[in-house]
Automatic annotation (TrEMBL):
<dbReference type="InterPro" id="IPR014710">
    <property type="entry name" value="RmlC-like_jellyroll"/>
</dbReference>
<protein>
    <recommendedName>
        <fullName>Cupin domain-containing protein</fullName>
    </recommendedName>
</protein>
<feature type="signal peptide">
    <location>
        <begin position="1"/>
        <end position="18"/>
    </location>
</feature>
<keyword id="KW-0732">Signal</keyword>
Length: 220
């Protein structure tokens, strides 16, 4: 009997140890690495109701794009005392993690899925940078060392064009009644995204009868 009891204790301790293991955020199972290049790493994060992520570490400058906000909780192991979440828009924010990483786990206390995109800015910088975008519909939310963030609100049945020296990442913020298009790629669901290489022309078309919003990241 004692042998089985000791075996049980060993299994419990092993499971508890595994639950406390800290991994880079890109390796946490609910953070799905859906795109990566020399400029960005796009993690599509989905936490179901009642589910909890493992402990993970954020240490790369990141833009967080909240696509489906719900009531969540968090257990923090390490965090800068005054963490920087820069943005007047709660759906699109930047954190640098310059002084300290954040090590935490997150759980979903709600009845719907928590959906957020964590865009790590892995660019080493040094790319040509123009003045911020001034076109109608663009609202600049932050202008940080590695990235600028904008919310683009495109009016109904409208098309815009732009071309930038810096690469862009464009993310759809909501589901659309009718598909939109960016350079002929269809956008219809929250979290649809497209990376635009530096210098490439961009055409964004909204065929819906209501405005549609995007997060636009300009990588430096």
């Amino acid at each position: 009997m004692k042998k089985y009891y000791l075996l049980f204790l060993f299994i419990v301790q092993t499971l508890l140890s595994a639950a406390q293991t800290v991994v880079p955020v890109r390796n946490e199972p609910r953070h799905h690495n859906v795109f990566e290049n020399n400029f960005v790493r796009v993690l599509d994060v989905r936490v179901n109701p009642g589910d909890t992520t493992g402990f993970h570490k954020h240490e790369t400058p990141s833009v967080f794009i909240v696509l489906h906000p719900v009531k969540t909780g968090s257990e923090v192991k390490i965090e800068e005392q005054k963490a920087t979440a820069l943005s007047p828009d709660p759906s699109i924010s930047f954190e640098g993690f310059y002084k300290s990483p954040r090590i935490h786990r997150v759980w979903n206390e709600d009845t719907a899925q928590f959906h957020v995109m964590d865009v790590e800015i892995v660019s080493k910088g040094g790319h040509p940078t123009e003045a911020p975008i001034q076109q109608d519909g663009f609202k600049m939310l932050f202008d940080e060392q590695p990235v600028r963030g904008y919310r683009l609100t495109l009016p109904a049945t409208n098309t815009i064009q732009l071309q930038r020296q810096s690469p862009l990442l464009i993310v759809g913020l909501t589901n659309a009644a009718q598909p939109l298009s960016i350079n002929k790629q269809s956008f219809s669901k929250e979290g649809d995204y497209l990376f635009i290489p530096s210098g490439q022309a961009v055409q964004i078309s909204n065929s819906n009868q209501q405005p549609y919003s995007f997060a636009v990241l300009e990588i430096k």
